[in-house]
Amino acid sequence: MPAISRPDEAPSTTTLPIRKHKFPTPKIRVHLEDLQHEGSSAFLSNIKGNEDLEEQVQNVLNLLYTQDSKRPDTRSVTFVFREYAGLAYTTGIELDDDHKEIHINLAYIAKVREPRHELLGVICHELVHCFQWNAEGTCNGGLIEGIADWVRLNAGLAAKHWKQEASGNWDGGYQHTGYFLQYLEERFGKGTVRKINDGLREGKYDEKKLFTSCCGGKEVQGLWKEYGEELKKREAEKAKEGGEKATKTEEGKTIPTDTPPKYGESQ
């Protein structure tokens, strides 16, 4: 069984070879409600609107679709930066759902320690909601959010606080489900999550049909159990490796004590 990617192994945004095709880009607009807000300053200082937003659109489309795939007819995306209770959300406008709005809280942006990385990650996640299929509005919400964080992970934008674990149910959403989807991608082959997304294109949500058709005939609950077992196995191997290193230290072999923490371990 393949190893599961770790947060510190997420590819860099500068080297990520995922944009194999240039998809048509919808009209992109940016609305800053308060230019004097500290969050507006952080956005303008860290994000190049004419480059970064387009890049994330292409990242999302290349990870979810092939050149010949049928995609949602999203015609425009408007980013609305304002202060409100929350972090970010995506919605269609009332008159036409093909026009999307992504609202991001300026107060949140203002307090982020590494605004560029985190902002790009949030933007990437919310853009997925502009382009993914959702089983005609009936899809499990945890899967919807998990696909969005799976894309964020594979765009090299995983948040530093993310942890890979298998507690609770598979559809807990966000990175909890995102890492599980990455496990499925690596176990059943590249394009597995793309197939899952495409399986949500038509008809009502059918969990059993969706996962058995995309994951070698296996049902998702069984896969979740096997995923948990794989994580436990990896943790045991990691503990054993740590014990071997300690033994070598006692034997007088030099092990650096000032090695920088891996990405994701400093939080």
Question: How does this model look, in words?
Answer:
The protein has about 270 residues and is an alpha/beta fold. The chain contains 9 helices and 4 strands, in the order βααβββααααααα. It has 2 domains: about 10-130, no CATH class; about 135-250, no CATH class. A 4-stranded mixed beta sheet has the order 1-2-4-3. Strand 3 and strand 4 form a beta hairpin. Helix 2 (about 50-65) crosses helix 4, helix 4 (about 115-130) crosses helix 5 (about 140-155) and helix 5 packs across helix 6 (about 175-190). Mean pLDDT is about 85; it is low at about 5-15 and about 245-265.
- Summed over residues and divided by their number, the pLDDT gives a mean of 87
Residues in β-strands, percent: 5-15%
The dominant shape is globular
Task: Figure out the total of helices.
Answer: 9
Number of domains: 2
Strand order of the largest sheet: 1-2-4-3
The total strand number stands at: 4
Strand-pairing-aware structural class? alpha/beta
**Order of SSEs, N→C?**
EHHEEEHHHHHHH
How big is the Rg? Answer: 20 Å
For the record, give the distance between the C-alpha atoms at the N and C termini, rounded to a whole number.
29 Å
Low-confidence stretches: 5-15, 246-267
Q: Helix fraction?
A: 40-55%
Specify the biggest β-sheet.
4 strands, mixed
Q: How do you describe this structure in short?
A:
The protein is of the alpha/beta class and 267 residues long.
List the topology elements:
Blueprint: E1 27-32, H1 38-46, H2 52-64, E2 76-82, E3 88-92, E4 99-105, H3 106-111, H4 115-131, H5 141-154, H6 174-188, H7 192-198, H8 207-214, H9 220-250
Parallel strand pairs: 1-2, 2-4
Antiparallel strand pairs: 3-4
Helix pairs in contact: 2-4, 4-5, 5-6
